Model the fold of this input.
Amino acid sequence: MPLGIDPNVPSIARTYDYLLGGAHNFAVDRQLADNVEKIMPRSREIARLNRAFLRRAVLFLIESGIRQFLDIGSGVPTVGNVHEIAQLAAPDARVVYVDKDPVAVAHSELLLQDNKGASIIQADLREPERILNHPETVRLLDFEQPIGLLMVMMLHFVPDSDNPMQIIATYRDALVPGSYLALSHVTADQRADQISEAAQEISRSRSSDQLSYRSHAEVSRFFDGFELVEPGVVGCGLWRPDGPGGISNDPDSNAHVYAGIGRKPGGPVTNE
Amino acid sequence: MNLPPMDGSLARNALPDDGLRERTTLARKWAYLLSQTSYVPWSHSELEQRLVVFVGELADLVRTEPFTAEPAGSVGVHLVEWRCTDPAALRRTASVLGKGLLGLPELRMIPDRAERVVAVLVSLAAGFTEQMREFVIGQQESMSKALRRAVRNAEQSLADSEARFTQVATTSPNGIAITDLDGNFVSVNDALRRILAYPGEDLDSRCIYDVVPPERTDQLLALYANLGAGQDNPPRQMLRLLRDDGSTATVSLAASSLRDEHGVPNRAVLSIEDVSELTLLQDELCRQALHDVLTGLPNRQFFTSRLEEVVHRFDRDNGITLFLLGLDAFTLVTAGLGRRVSERLLIHVAERLKSVMDGERAMVARFEGDEFAILVENSPTTPSAAAIAERINEQLAVPVTISDAGLADGTGRDRGVGTYAVSASIGIVEGLPANLGPTELLGAAETTLRRAQRSRGRRFELFDPEEDARDRETYRLAAGMAGAWERGDLRVAYQPFFRLSDGNPIGVEPLLRWHRRGHAPLDHDRCVSLAEQTGLTLPLGTWRLTSACTTVREQGWGVPLYLGFTANQAANPDLPAAVLRALSENHLDPQRLFLGMPTPALIAGGQPLANLIALAEAGVGMIATDFGAVPADLVDLETLPLQAVHLARWRPRRDHAGSTSVLSALIDTVHAAGVLVIVDDIKNKAHQQWWQQVGADIGQGLFYAPVGAPDEVHGFFNAAQ
Done:
């Protein structure tokens, strides 16, 4: 049984926490982050821009009438967690977090102990049936109502050999019309040199997660069966930026990560 | 300092009190700088509002008698609590406040304000540092709490996971065995009993060495040694196993290690696939001639059968990658340098490719002519496909000298002797796209290669099924474009521009339209993108300009002409001359013409920028198109001789309040530089009103007038006169 809590093996969730200025991480995680930063000097900025996209995405979904969220690959709780953003805007919002990293899960459990509207389950994105039928999911989310499915900085850790299209289709089929999929995904369409080198750095580390960056067309395909809302799949800094914290002066930084939101067609329209 | 687009609402609602305005300005700079170092979970204006309060508190501290700096520490504490923990956050805070507080008019009368500001900042920094320590300790404490909890959770789920494993093992068609590190079977599944023809429980009491031929024992010992040393996924290996009935089974064996609670490997999981039939087939194939005579590499037949075999058994964790390479312009080499030199170069390429793939499980093959293929069974250490592609071209770019030795072909001794470097376009199919068999895989690699060969400046391309289908349609269209132009099916249509404030037509844009029998006409954007692919882009650009100038003259339209160029057209060094020629031939004043160039091309500088300046000096009005996609746009407004900017197609939806304020701030900034704002795609009254409200000046779209032939739009310009 791989416990996944070996402090000598870096974890992507904790590395991301470190890049966002958190201290929920070990020396190996910081080492990996530092090595990646040497290759991509703007790594911190990219993490920040993605976090800012997550906030705008949650607020957009709230505006669109979504009150239930399934956040897969939620990572180590840090600043601006989905339930905090959502419940501030809509106190009745409910959130089920999913992560496979046992330490991230334990962290989240501690954080969410007193929150009636949010919960965390330990599972892998690649087990949709397990996630969708998990008692906590069933307890908090009403699958007769639209749901906001979040896969932020997630699918690039699912190689094509795991058939991510099929996995997303399973989730999509479980959602009623009017539900949304929001995702962000690393690409090498810009600065292929940096990204492929960073991917190799991650692959040299002992992390079990490897980076499968994808092209614009490939990321767009994840939205099969959803209707993309404007402006479509774009660099995450360019997805409806709402202030200088969410967009960079450096076009590459805006474009290392693609972001998009799609709506499952049909059902009542709340935001048009 | 590169200030962000200001929030227009704040600027407009500034309070009359000077002191408050100065504080707001300072808070705004501070907010911008903080937002570039740390993520804060609020809107930017909320951050600004919070910082205005802090600036006020700090200014009050400096002003108040008796002076004390200590309360400033709480600002530092708050910064950490907001997670502005990046060292740059403190550095930038100190720097912006140091200058900013000293500059506040309300503090000018205080004689020792410099000392006081320093004291306040020191106190702020001390508060920050102290809180930072608390923050790290607190987080590390919750970290260890979380760790303890994770271990407890893991122990609980161990029982569940054992049950799950049993289920996987029973249903798998592959043989699965768990052994200890000495090779003793701990558990085996029915599939393995079947493969080894052991009935009942007989196998359970044996060890792996009982079923391995003696000469392969060492191979297995080495495998177990690696697993014990912590290697998690050693490469798959082919092996013959002894069956209970004395025959052998050829298997492909993958092993991985299990670890105990301390992370030390203590078990091995073996996954064993029966490939006996495949092996027989392979032996058969090997007897045939399967190699290319020239290079000694496997040929297409060999490669295809290997591909077929690998597709059925590859390592799902790491996948396979298929590369198809075509040497660039190699027919020219053959024609220009002769067959013998090109053959020497092909041998050289084969050697280089083999050296790049050295150490990988890979087959390098030569197909016909200048085409090579590589099939890689990836291991965890295999570089990415993109990296391999780059390495291939790096290797090929190293020049090679072809001497005349062995080149005597009787036609003159020197022909072709010299030093050469070649490059390859590469089509890549990565992983295994769902449902693709070997033939489809090769077909996919071929179209991907064609795409790579077509796109200049990108020498490799990854397979994308959707693009594949689109490509075929695009090929067909692009191939017919020149003919359509000649036949007159490609025409210039016109769409007027209007002033938003009074709805008067004030310009006209010539747009390409491709009329096709039995189909809807292709619109301008599609024509332009096809032209970019066929090399027609420069002549078509000039033709559009010249036709439009002629039409304007013949029709006697009194409004200016507006033409947007693509990045390639904008970079044409002959552009200014062509433009001026078109104008003078039609006796048009340069001021009647407005030309657009893409903002990214302008920011990059070089030829487009030089053209822009030359044309502006000649009196042509210049417009930056695709404007507003990146904030760096703002930098150039002041320096470039621009009349207007044309906003990028994407714009926020009307009901999206957050983006509206950014957009009107952007437009305000553009206006402040004395530049007009053009928008397009105005579909209805609501669009028009919304754009007018955010401050756009000029617009175009179905709401005003559709694209039409000269006769169809003529009426607009008559009415205007």
